[in-house]
Specification:
By secondary structure, the chain is mainly alpha-helical. It contains 10 helices and 2 strands. A two-stranded antiparallel sheet has the order 1-2.
């Protein structure tokens, strides 16, 4: 951790602070859930990760425009940015022939939000310095989540509180944990990236107790 502190910038921008917070927020993909209606079978709702992405994008737009004014070529000559922008535009065009225009628009909007975040990271000169701390935060968060997941299985033997209908112990003989995700398989999917990351770190020579503990707990979860 000391080596990480030496590598990251001393003064972080608001975008960078929010970006480093993301590894702790992604686990709340369903709970808490802010539901405000339905549209032809589609649920209209916000989760904490989506709210954070929107805030990140808003902050990123301001910083992107400021960089664009100083040097417009940093964006206009970047092939990755131009190619991905085409995908975003295509998603918005599908509104004209989509079955559910509102759902199509919101889905395209989410892609646009993620694209703005991508653009900000792509043109940032300090993004590479942030990724070591970002991955550390993700691995740390996965360890905490794994402990809570194991506790949910243990508690699930006595109560169904916090479990989805198909997750209760009476179905399989043990509770299937979902924690803050909508279903167990979604929680499992969220654990895949940090498991691969910490495994790669161990294989790369970072054989610390922290990495081994997180890997073990994540695999159990």
């Amino acid at each position: 951790m000391k080596n990480l502190k030496n590598k990251i910038p001393k003064e972080l921008s608001l975008f960078e602070k929010l970006f480093l917070l993301a590894p702790f927020v992604i686990w709340f993909s369903y709970w808490p859930n802010f539901h405000f209606g339905k549209s032809e079978g589609a649920n209209l709702e916000f989760s904490l990760p989506l709210i954070l992405c929107v805030i990140l994008a808003v902050v990123a737009i301001y910083e992107i425009l400021r960089q664009f004014r100083r040097n417009s070529q940093i964006i206009l000559k970047d092939r990755a940015i131009l190619l991905t922008s085409g995908f975003v535009v295509w998603n918005f065009l599908t509104i004209f022939w989509g079955f559910n225009p509102l759902r199509t628009f919101l889905t395209a909007g989410i892609w646009a939000v993620l694209w703005v975040i991508f653009v900000k990271l792509k043109i940032s000169s300090r993004a590479k310095k942030l990724f070591p701390l970002f991955t550390h935060n993700l691995i740390l968060a996965s360890g905490i989540v794994s402990i809570l997941t194991i506790l949910q299985v243990a508690i699930g033997a006595f109560t169904d509180w916090g479990l989805c209908r198909g997750c209760v112990a009476s179905g399989f003989g043990f509770a299937r944990p979902s924690l803050f995700a909508i279903e167990p398989q979604f929680l499992g999917s969220l654990l895949l990236a940090p498991i691969l990351l910490v495994w790669w770190k161990i294989l790369s020579g970072e054989k610390t107790k922290f990495n081994f503990w997180v890997l073990g707990l994540s695999l159990i979860a």
